[in-house]
Amino acid sequence: MHNYYTRQGGKSMLKRLSFALAVLFCIFHCWTAMFGAAAGIGQKAIHLGLVLIIFFLDYLAQEDRKWYCRVMDAFFILASAGSLIYIMSIDKTIDLRSGMIYTYDILFGVLLIITLIEATRRAVGKSLAIVVICFIVYGFMGQHMPGFLAHVGMDITRITSVVYLGTDGIYGTAIYASASYIVLFVILGAVFNETGVGDYFTKLASRAFGKFRGGPAKIAVVASGLFGSISGSAIANVIGTGTFTIPMMKKCGFEDEYAAAVEASASTGGQIMPPVMGATAFLIAEYLGIPYFDLVKAALIPAVLFYVAILMTVDLYARKNNIKGVPESELPTWKELVKNVYLILPLIYLIVSMSVFKMSVTKSGITSIIATIVCTLFSARNRITPAKLKKIVKASINGAKPVAIACGVVGIIIGIVMGSGLGFRMSSVLIQVSNGHLGILLVLTMVVSLILGMGVPTTAAYLMLALLVVPALKQMNVLPLAAHLFIFYFGIISNVTPPVALAAYAAAGVARCNPTKTGVFAFKLSLSGFILPFMFVYNPVLLMQGGALEILQSLITALLGIYSLSAALEKFVFKWNINQAERLVLLASALLLIIPGTITDLIGFAVLLGIFLIKTAEEKKGNYAKA
């Protein structure tokens, strides 16, 4: 066996088999999106089963694998295939069993659980794998747990019933979203990249913002927002756009760590930027039972505020340090952009199909893929060739693997939480600890969200928090939409929150600079992301929950508040340096403008205006030097 697999022919055969299954995976999802999902558990089981088989096949095909590692890989391939075949064979009879569990149920259920944990360790990281193991132990040992953690305990039969066969387990809501919606937008993102749509976003941002003060950083912010909305991964976004924007920022005079931090912050925000908002947004819409486009509309203002805050901070930094824009000769020409304007049509179609034609997410996704192919058909440079098609298939399966595995393994946690009743008890405990005070509960939720989000994919973090924390927020009469977006934001912001700021560390790797310092800068640049969730919980008008005038007033005061915060962070307002006392006054102005209420808004605006008038007067008197 060892000699067989070390032959080049064996490796090549495994790689071809893996690619063939990846092609089948893409065809299956495009077909079911167009003509309807597979019945029963089929769509979810085939989705997860193929991902796991391909995932371990790719390991088995690696050149330098030791023989015992290959044995393990082969075991997990067989376990994945076996559990898929078995669950498909009993799909139609599960509901007729009246709770009966058979030996084969337990066998294949345990095999799938073990396989998922190992796949999680390899694809996502040890953190989530350890969390899952802890929850399984908790399920078995519930009768020995103290206080609110105690429950009657779950034996192997009960765990199999809930996790493997139940609708709240592995084949529950999370994997349903991955199999039905998320995978389509992963494929769409791959198609966008290979047809030049993604590159067009970067060129458009370069042309629009590059010539202005601090232009390279503004290019990074806008390009990362556009690209990140499609990619759905902060780290992938950093690598995708950062390799272009970070060197440009460094060349124009930005400090290495600051350049990396700008890219990390902007890339992290891509997951909150409509219209796609990464993978987790589909889960939020599924949990809330609302049309996906309603969620997109609600998330628009906070996302815009997040990016405007970064742009404001970057602009103040550039003005303070006299950093110019990109030379005209290095920017793409308007002629080039107009010539290729058709590349933005697929994104426009995606938005219009959901907002105007009210298409389902799956129909919008698959028809957007078709629209992109048609739009680029007559361009020799951008049309899909066999070589590009191969890249699309590989990018699609590589993008789907970590999401599907995370959704599958989180199903184990969901099953244990639901089966043990922990979710209901956790809500009561949080309300007791906060003493019924919403502000304290929100701070507790923020801390828990940041901790669970560190080193864990946003999708997995969101699903755990939706079970454990959101019920408590709902009991405190927080709007369900605001509650889900609150935990979603903090699950994302953990990517730039030290000590485990993965997006910041990835950007530091691209910039070849100090990762710790980059993390601190990224945290500072993303500070608005810590404030915005509190703002829309206390003022749901920011989620489009109100009249036009209310929304306009809230938007204007939020922008002024964010500007005051940005100025305080940079110790620079309008065009002047500020001292420590003035910085504290600006922080007070930001707080007053952020707190909902006409009186606080007027006072906050008056304070900001007062700072401007004082600085203007000082300049006129010649007592203050311009920066």
TrEMBL record:
Transmembrane segment boundaries: 17-39, 45-61, 68-88, 100-117, 129-150, 170-192, 299-318, 339-359, 365-382, 403-424, 436-469, 481-508, 520-539, 551-569, 589-614
Top-rank lineage group of the source organism: Bacteria
The entry's keywords: Membrane, Transmembrane, Transmembrane helix
Record's keyword annotation contains Transmembrane: yes
Annotated InterPro entries: DctM (IPR010656), TRAP_DctM-Dct_fused (IPR011853)
Domain (TRAP C4-dicarboxylate transport system permease DctM subunit) ranges: 112-545
PANTHER family noted in UniProt: BLL3936 PROTEIN (PTHR43849:SF2)
Protein name listed in UniProt: TRAP transporter permease
Organism: Enterocloster asparagiformis
Lineage of source species: Bacteria, Bacillati, Bacillota, Clostridia, Lachnospirales
